[in-house]
Amino acid sequence: MTVSDSYKSRTFGDIPVGFGKRAGIVVIDFQIGYTRPEYRFGSAPLIMRALENTSKLLDVARSAGLPVAVCNTAYMSEREMPFWKIRNVRETFLYSDPSVALDPSIHDPSYDLIVCKKAPSIFYNTEVADYFIKEGVDTVIVTGCATSGCVRASTIDSFSRCWHTIVPEDCVGDFEQQPHEDNLRDVGRRYADISNLAEVIDHIRPA
């Protein structure tokens, strides 16, 4: 996921974002429709890897007292939805469908801020940004799925709010390797630092 010569010669990716003083973690759409094999979106290998690694990251983040915001995507009915081009979203991302429940491995209702989002970004028309501002967050660590969709949208929104934005590659996942790599490469040369679980844990672990 290095910056290609055509972009590098034009200074893309030249300046690292780095961590600020206080991190917040966003966890995007690890609902069981993505994490259980009986569902059409379920159990893609990259997403399952990201789920396992995000659970490890969250254990450290919570022990450090860092704010965590977790979301799913669900709607009252198809009438409430944007014009999704994905049939499975239109048919199953409904409050009444069990697939929209959060995977318990990343969900601590006694600690996390839980939101239901209606658009790709976790920040769009939710209270996550206000929560992070109140908590003094200046760095957002983006985890979840899918890399090419809601993870990318949330990364760009984090950048647009002038937060240091860090995406640990092994804590986000997609259905295929190529779009996963392509989208991380692109946001990595424009908006965010692409890191990994070990590096992020080293930074946020309590002293």
TrEMBL record:
GO molecular function per UniProt: hydrolase activity
Superkingdom classification of source: Bacteria
SUPFAM superfamilies: Isochorismatase-like hydrolases
Gene3D superfamilies from the UniProt entry: Isochorismatase-like
InterPro entries noted in UniProt: Isochorismatase-like_dom, Isochorismatase-like_hydrls, Isochorismatase-like_sf
Keywords in alphabetical order: Hydrolase
Isochorismatase-like domain mapped to chain residues: 25-196
Phosphoprotein in keyword set: no
Entry protein name: Isochorismatase family protein
Organism listed in the record: Gluconacetobacter dulcium
